[in-house]
Amino acid sequence: MKIRDLIITPIAFRDPPLLNSTGVHEPLALRCVLELVTDDGTTGLGESPGDKEHLERLAVAREAVLGMDVFATTAIGQAVDAALGGPGGPVPTTARAGVFSAIEVACLDAQGKITGRPVCDLLGGAVRDAVPYSAYLFYKWAEHPAQDGRGPIPDEWGEALDPEGIVAQARRMVDLYGFRSLKLKGGVFPPDEEIAAIRALAEAFPGLPLRIDPNYAWTPETSRYVARELDGVLEYLEDPTPGFDGLASVAATATMPLATNMCVVSFETVRPAVERGSVQVILSDHHYWGGLRRTRELGAVCEAFGLGMSMHSNSHLGISLAAMTHVAAATPNLTYACDTHYPWNREDDVVVPGALRFTGGSVPVPDGPGLGVELDREALAERHRTYLESGRERRDDTGYRRRLDPSYDPAIPRW
Ligand SMILES: O=C([O-])[C@@H](O)[C@@H](O)[C@H](O)[C@@H](O)C(=O)[O-]
Ligand SMILES: [Mg+2]
């Protein structure tokens, strides 16, 4: 069964003004949808980041995989790697893995449709019927400020700039989706304010596991202070400070596990983290780790080193959510609730509603063949038009924040 075509469609969709340690989300997030067509007319779907460099690499990879057997994903991975220059070439490991990932997911969706089996079955079968996700809480502005004669752009979530705002946002997320764990994106305000927000969440939601992720915004000393202050409150502390050694110096005294999606980002970065004891939980993300099968393999590596496994996310739509759900369902030791940005972006999804739903904070594994989701072609065409009209090429949280506030300084670590 040969790959006859690979259609790459960049899209842009609405994103609220979510704050993080590098700035603020722009009004539009970029993504890319892949349609892989086999010679019997089956179409497999994939979703990946939508920045210009990634799109260019996908176009190169496309030429390499046309005509290959859609079931030969190992050989397809090698062909993609070679087309992008391989190890030591100009394209970093995670970027090559990212290109292959999008194609692998589309191959697996096509394989599932051809064989009549859900993708989780192609990964060894589901060990859970539904995958728990955590509410991804963000400090946020009430609206995107007016600029270039456009806006302001308000949204249904309103402002969240203090503990009360964060608790109200969490309440709404829990009411709407039933989430049973909460993650706060930190690194936005001085640590004591974020500690107060976590304490307010602990009081408002007794028993719900809590996490905070400041994306390297704190020094090792500040991280140790936060860990002490939140002793007994956090399920895990994510990427408090930069680097293997910085994290190790925090892990040495912290009572809660440390987690990362910034320090351990590829198989070759597992070893230095394990040697130093930098982290106890690795956040997988099939978009960066080379696809769904490699994510399953990361599960085995975590098991071998006694590490926990969770899942990272970025702004995404339903094809990614379906892929995340299939791989998490088929990875026994992925036991922490996964991150997802989906509630922030789902209104602009490009899949036909129905296959993906949240119940009690979990997404039941779609049971149709492949990923179990169907493309809404009208929505795809509209998001593609938005992409073309936007003229945007890549995500730039810092640039956007600086246009609004020229004195903004995203130095890391900041506190
Ligand atoms: O969406 C955001 O602003 C997040 O900060 C995202 O970019 C991170 O990659 C991610 O969610 C994380 O856990 O670090
Ligand atoms: Mg993180």
From TrEMBL:
Basic and acidic residues composition-biased segments: 390-406
Catalysed transformations (reactions): D-glucarate = 5-dehydro-4-deoxy-D-glucarate + H2O
Keywords carried by this UniProt record: Lyase, Magnesium, Metal-binding
Annotated spans, Disordered: 390-415
Residue intervals of the Mandelate racemase/muconate lactonizing enzyme C-terminal domain: 163-257
One of the Pfam families matching this protein, by short name: MR_MLE_C
Keyword Acyltransferase attributed: no
Entries under SMART domains matching the protein: MR_MLE
Protein name: glucarate dehydratase
Lineage: Bacteria, Bacillati, Actinomycetota, Actinomycetes, Kitasatosporales
